Amino acid sequence: MARLLYTLAVIALLPWAALHLLWRARRQPEYLRHWRERFGLYRPTGTSVGRRSGFSPTCRAEARPTPPTIWIHAVSVGETRAAQPLIAQLAQRYPRHAILFTHMTPTGRATSREIFGDAVRHVYLPYDTPWAMRRFLRRFQPELGLIMETEIWPNMVHACRRQGVPLLLVNARLSERSATRYAAFPKLVQEALLGLSAIAAQGEDDAARLAELGASDVIVTGNMKFDIKPPESQLERGRVMRTGFGDRPILLAASTREGEEELILDALRLQPIPGLLLLLVPRHPQRFDAVAALAASRGFALQRKSANEPLRPDTMVLIGDSMGEMFAYYSACDVAFIGGSLKNYGSQNLIEACAVGAPLLLGPSTFNFAEAARAALACGAALQVPDAPALIAAARSLLGDAERRLAMARSGRDFAATHRGASERTADLIEHFVPRQPAITPARR
C-alpha cells in the first residue's frame, strides 16, 4: 500500500516534472535534450565501448546488448567523479562487460562523457514510475545495478527485484537531515532498503542511520572519493596557472553555492588582503554570469578564466568558469575554502583538496562530508570558521604563515592517502553477485 500511494504521488507530479524541465532549460538548454529517456523511452542505438577502459567492443542496436552489462547510477557530478576508481576496478575484473551510466542531471551526464567518453554508455534514469522502470530494465537488461551514494527509488528497487537484477547501494551516505526526511515514510523506505541486495556505506554513522531506517546487513567500505588521485596533467596545469599568477597570494573559493559568493565578497571588501587574488569557482555553470556580475557590482576588477587572457595586475577576482579544472585550481592556490559549507548546504567535496595538499578552510555546515570533515579538522589539514568575516580573517592569517600552510598540506595528503581502498573493497563485494572474469588473453598471430 505504501508503494502504491507513492506511485500515485509520482504520477501526479509528472506534469510538474515536465514543467520543471522547461524551466531549467531557460538557463541550461541541455535539460531538453534526451527528455524522452526520463520517461523510459530510449533510442535503439548501440553502446560504443572503447578499448581504453578494457570493456568489450561496440554493441549494436539489439533487443539485448551483446555483452553483459553493469549499470551504475550516479545522479550528478560528485557521484560520477566518485565512480572513477570503481570503474577502473570493474574494467580490470570484468573485461567482457559493457558499462551503462545513468544520471538525473545534464551536468552529471556531461561529466561522465568528459571522463569516460565512449567507453561507457550515458543515459538518463527515468522518473520512478513502474512502467518506465520496467522499460528501462527490458531495454538494457543489466546483470547488476549499482546506485551511488543516496538515491533510493522504491519502484526502481521493486522492478529490479521482480526481474532478478541484483541492486547494490554503494558508497552510501546518509546525513542526519536526509535520515529525518526518509523517516517520515518508514514503511516505504524500509521496503526499498530491504529490497536492495547489499548496502556498502561510507562510514559507521551512515551505516547506523541506514540500519535505523530498516536496512539489514549494512557493511562499511569507506568513501570512494579518497581513491581519486589527482591527475598529473591537472597538477601540471595548476603549476602553469600559478606561474601566470605571479607571487600574489591566492585564495580559492571552490564550488561555492548561491548566497555564499555575496558573503565572501562583502567580507573581503571590509577586510581587504593586500595583493590578494580571489579565485572564485561557482559550483553550477549556469551561475557563472550571475557571479561575475555580482563581483563587478561590488567594485572588484575581475577576469574570467574562460577568456584565457594574461592576468592583469589590477584584477582582484578571477571567475573560474572553465570546466573540469578543479584539481588544477587546488594546485594553483595557497589556501582553499570549500563551498557549500558557509551556508547550510552541507559542504562540497573536501577530499580532492586534501589529496592535492591545499590548506583548507571550512564553514560551519559539513553534514554531507561529516566524517571526512571531522577527520580533516582533527589531523590539522583544515580549519573551521563560523562565518564569512572569520573566513577572510583566517585566510589572511594562513597566507602570512608559510610554515603552517606547509604543515596543513602534508597533513591533507597523509589524510587522503590513509583512507584509500574503498573502491577495491566495493569491487570485492560485487564479486559475490557477479563472479570475476579471467583477463582477456591477446590472440596469437
How would you describe what is shown here?
- This protein has a seven-stranded parallel sheet, sandwiched between helices.
- It is built from 18 helices and 14 strands.
- By secondary structure, it is α/β, with parallel strands linked by helices.
- It is globular, with a radius of gyration of 23 Å.
- Strand 13, helix 15 and strand 14 form a beta-alpha-beta unit.
- The longest helix has 24 residues.
- The protein has two domains: 205 residues, 3-Deoxy-D-manno-octulosonic-acid transferase, N-terminal domain (Rossmann fold, 3-Layer(aba) Sandwich), CATH 3.40.50; 187 residues, Rossmann fold, CATH 3.40.50.2000.
Mean pLDDT across the residues is 90
* The CATH top-level class label of the largest domain: Alpha Beta
Distance from N terminus to C terminus (CA atoms, Å) equals 62 Å
CATH homology superfamily of the largest domain: 3-Deoxy-D-manno-octulosonic-acid transferase, N-terminal domain
> In terms of per-residue confidence, which ranges show pLDDT below 50 for 5 or more consecutive residues?
46-65
**Roughly how many Å is the radius of gyration?**
23 Å
The rough form would be described as globular
Remind me, CATH topology of the largest domain?
Rossmann fold
Biggest sheet layout: 7 strands, parallel
What fraction, in percent, of the residue positions are helical?
Answer: 40-55%
Strand content: 5-15%
